[in-house]
Amino acid sequence: MEDDKKSKVPWIILACAMGLALVIGAGVIIANALGSFSNLERTIHGEDDSIEQWDGYYRGHDGNTEDQSNRDGAVESNDRGGEQSYADDLIVVRPGQIYTIEEIEGLYGVQLNNGDAGRYYSGIYTVGDGAKMPSGIYHIDGDQEDMSHFCIFTPKQNAKGEPGFQIKAMVEYFGDYFAEFSEGELVVFTPDNKRLYMESATDEPIETSSPLDSGCYRVGIDIPAGTYNLSIETVSQDEIRYSNSTPAAYVMQDLEFDGDSIIESVPVEAGAPNVVIVKDGQYLELFGVRASQVS
User: Which residues contact 1 (CB under 8 A, 6 or more apart)?
Assistant: First the structure.
């Protein structure tokens, strides 16, 4: 991944917590291996793209502020008229640490869920044969103004040989998103809007706008390959500033949320438009950015 990606929270892969914790924050996927959090968001939209290197905090929804004495890199101020700072919305998840399902439920304030007729709302889900959520690629609802989040945990035994889960990726995003969930994984879905849900993706193109709004798009299915002009999307900028993130476009070759998933990151600033080129089979994520195809 390149060094010019967003500096603090989102991408497409990540994790969060205190000390050596991973942070999930704004936007894209963050997975200590991809991500979107830097000290607060080194993830798909962050500075580092390996889970082992990430540290920071995760932006939660339940106001959990326990055990947050170490706030290096946390945002202590914002322009939200005196509302709590980003650091006050963080959940601690340590990369490398093994968690039980009960511990993960306690961290995120959501419960193990079964889904509802193929739709998976806010909650925790086990993935794979015999589980409540089949493995595969999922379409994930989102919002253009409010950041949504999901995390992926992989199965791992602790030192005693007991089953548990280790953080793989934390993702923060705007708009709709896509992710691939594999056998044995645990998915934590915590959207700000409880009406949002995940469901198995189809080969049908999703509804798009012109220009394209923030979100994740499948090139060759949802959008055509080619060159796109990039500009700032104004509606998401308050959330982006609050999370100390950077508007950007990300080109991904897959949805595995590892160090090789993002092949190009293109930061965008107001008054300084940029361009991105995508090919069939790739994925284009727009984080606080709009894109118009060059004719």
Answer: 34, 49, 259, 262, 265
- Counted residue by residue, the chain has a size of 295
pLDDT in tens, 134-181: 999 999 999 998 888 899 999 999 889 999 999 999 888 999 999 999
- Plot region of 54 (φ>0 → left; ψ -120 to 50 → alpha; else → beta): beta
**Closest alpha carbon to 107 in 163, 192, 162, 188:** 188
C-alpha distances out from residue 73 to 45, 123, 269, Å: 15, 28, 22
- Token match 């107001």: residue? 270
Contacts of 209 (CB under 8 A, 6+ apart): none
Q: Which tokens in the block code for residue 120? A: 């998976």
Q: Tell me the backbone φ, ψ of residue 137, rounded to 5 degrees.
A: -95, 135
> Strands 163-173 and 29-30: what pairing?
antiparallel
Considering the chain, what percentage of its residues have pLDDT values greater than 90? 49
Task: State the burial class of residue 43 (Cβ atoms within 10 Å of its Cβ: 0-12, 13-18, 19+).
Answer: buried
Rounded Cα distance between 111 and 119, Å, is 16
Phi first, then psi, for residue 237 (nearest 5°) are -70, -30
- Residue 38 three-state SS: helix
Strand pairing category for 262-267 and 186-189:
unpaired
DSSP state of 291: E
| Prediction pTM value | 0.75
CA atoms within 13 A of residue 210's CA, in its CB half-sphere? 5
223 - beta bridge partners?
A: 219
What is the reported pLDDT for 33?
Answer: 30
- Give me the amino acid identity at 278: V
pLDDT (average), residues 15-28: 34
